[in-house]
Amino acid sequence: MNSYLLSAYVLVWPAISAVVLYVLCRGVVKDIRDARREGRDLV
Q1: What's the CA gap between 15 and 24, in Å, rounded?
Q2: What angle do CA 4, 8, 14 make, to 5 degrees?
Q3: Tens-place pLDDT, residues 1-43
Q4: DSSP string for the chain
Q5: Around Cβ 35, how many Cβ atoms within 10 Å?
Q6: What is the per-residue pLDDT for 2?
Q7: How far apart are CA 34 and CA 38, in angstroms?
Q8: How far apart are CA 43 and CA 40, in angstroms?
């Protein structure tokens, strides 16, 4: 049973990490577009 949990963890965490990275990148792109549209600096 323990090896099944470890295998599931090893296989699932890259997918979870990819989803988090996608959400972060989507937010940054939205902020960049909003800043360009409003004519202000991003930082």
Answers
A1: 14
A2: 160
A3: 788 899 888 999 999 999 999 999 999 999 999 999 999 998 8
A4: -HHHHHHHHHHHHHHHHHHHHHHHHHHHHHHHHHHHHHT----
A5: 13
A6: 85
A7: 6
A8: 9
pLDDT at 30: 97
Positive or negative torsion for Cα 11, 15, 18, 24? negative
**Structure-token pair, residue 20:** 């988090």
Structure tokens at 13: 């965490």
**Which residue's structure tokens are 């937010």?**
27
pLDDT at 21: 98
Q: What is the SS3 assignment for 41? A: coil
Place of tokens 């965490």: 13
